[in-house]
Amino acid sequence: MNQNQQLFAAAQKHIPGGVNSPVRAFGSVGGTPRFFKKGLGAYAWDVDDQRYIDYVGSWGPLILGHTHPDVLEAVIAAAKNGMSFGAPTAAEVELADLICEMLPSIEQVRLVSSGTEATMSAIRLARGFTGRDKLVKFEGCYHGHADSLLVKAGSGLLTFGNPSSAGVPASVAADTLVLPYNDVAALEALFAEIGEQIAAIIVEPIAGNMNMVQASPEFVQAMRKLTENHGAILIYDEVMTGFRVDLQCTQGLHGVKPDLTCLGKVVGGGMPLAAFGGRSDIMAKLAPLGPVYQAGTLSGNPVAVAAGLATLKIIREDGFFNQLAIQTKKLCDGLIQVAKETNTIFSAQSVGGMFGFYFSKNIPQSFADVMNSDRTRFNAFFHGMLNKGIYLAPSAFEAGFVSAAHSDQDILDTLEAARSVFLEIK
Ligand code: PMP
Predict the structure, then answer these.
(1) What is the distance between the alpha carbons of residues 300 and 364, in angstroms, rounded to a whole number?
(2) DSSP 3-state assignment of 282?
(3) Atom 5, ligand 1: which residue's CA is nearest?
(4) Which positions does the record annotate as the modified residue N6-(pyridoxal phosphate)lysine (predicted)?
(5) Per-residue pLDDT for 157 more than 60?
């Protein structure tokens, strides 16, 4: 047994499934998860000293690559001054100001410690603000693991949601309505029927949890118009897309302003930090100003805030996003080209530093489309690439990420690996 295998066996003794978050277990692709010991720039090393070009980047946060010197320096300096106070600090004011400056739809923001907390709190706030209970989400979108969000659609448009995890009360799931992504007609029908009962729509405006699926412009417009017309709140879950697809997240790309936005991943620069914010009249309902309770011992943690601030300052530099988008597109265009040359049925797309690739002829528009891609081939591709030192997300339902540290040579090496793996798995 190598070190990874030994550690995975040992991990299972005291950690359920050997992991602290399920997808890490390689459940859908099979095999032994890699245990990492070090990261630098675009690379991560496992405990067997294998180096990988890392396209997971901690599932999105590492937009500057691993251990960026400025981020590291900021984190060390902050930690030396105190790990946590549970009281306000100047740096969190600076981060709040910066977020509001970068994202015009956010007038006020609250810092939390995970994406799950951000979405859970935003939903409670939307319900508290509107005095309504019903929540609309879309099939294939993931918004963290709060009870009301672990819900699958029943069949038919207006059937109430069923829990998709044990431990979620049916009564909680019943208030979550699940519609197909990018289906304007279904959304219009739902609002026509019960629009006045809907507290909020929560959506990933570019979905990254069913591989990568982009909302159509019509879908985005319909969500904005219908929520506005029916007094419901539009919540953008930009935990993944925030400061990843564009400096103004998807809001810069689509030109639509949501009422509330959830941020995570990049905003924390690799540390446990997330945020939710938006219209100040809504945010004013939060405790201590208003009746909606929300709190956190480590919220606005100074070490995490330091990592977030250092990261946001760099991604705001002139040309940063342009270069990141070019680099990510190079990877996708290259993969498409190599697939063509090897007669592989394949498609790929990217926005900013986020990408998706699919073993299907066309780019998916919905969860159903993603389900129709060739997952057996994905699994074979994943393992072939892993063997060649390319670390991709261990699931066909996850987006990928390029960082500013990924060089032209890294992309070329990845394409070279992909060429031989495409041939191997034919
Ligand atoms: N929303 C989205 C869009 C996400 O991608 C994630 C995590 N992948 C979450 C929410 C939950 O964030 P966390 O894992 O930090 O709780």
Answers:
(1) 37
(2) helix
(3) 240
(4) 265
(5) no
What pLDDT, on a 0 to 100 scale, did the predictor assign at position 153? Answer: 53
Element spanning 236, H or E: strand 233-238
Domain boundary among 290, 315, 340: 315
346 lines ligand 1 (CB under 6 A): no
What does the buried/exposed string (b/e) look like for 76-98 if buried means 16 or more CB atoms within 10 Å of the residue's CB?
Answer: eebeeeeeeeeeebebbeebbeb
pLDDT of 158 reads 42
Let me know if 358 is a catalytic residue.
no
pTM over 0.90: yes
Establish whether residue 240 lines the binding site of ligand 1, counting it when its CB lies within 6 angstroms of any ligand atom: yes
370: domain CATH number is 3.90.1150.10
Query: Which one of 315, 339, 367 terminates a domain?
Result: 315
Task: Say yes or no to pLDDT of 160 above 70.
Answer: no
Q: Check if 138 has its Cβ closer than 6 Å to any atom of ligand 1.
A: no
CB-CB contact of 39 with 386 (8 Å)? no
Alpha carbon of 18 to ligand 1 centroid (Å): 21
Across 380-384, average pLDDT: 98
Q: Is 142 in the pocket of ligand 1 (CB under 6 A)?
A: yes
Question: How many residues make up the chain in this entry?
Answer: 426
Decide if 237 is catalytic.
Answer: yes
Nearest to 367 by CA among 184, 201, 179: 179
Number of compact structural domains in the chain? 2
Mean pLDDT of the chain: 96
Q: Is the peptide bond before 33 cis (omega within 30 degrees of 0)?
A: no
94 shares its domain with 18: no
Which run of H or of E encompasses 213?
strand 213-214
The interface pTM score, or ipTM, of the predicted complex is: 0.99
Cα(80)–Cα(157) distance, integer angstroms: 55
155 — pLDDT class (breaks 50, 70, 90): very low
User: Quick check: is 265 catalytic?
Assistant: yes
Residue 286 is given by DSSP the state: B
pLDDT at site 162: 72
Domain range for residue 132? Answer: 69-315
Q: What is the pLDDT of residues 108-120, one digit of tens each?
A: 999 999 999 999 9
Between β-strands 134-138 and 176-179, what pairing exists: parallel, antiparallel or unpaired?
parallel
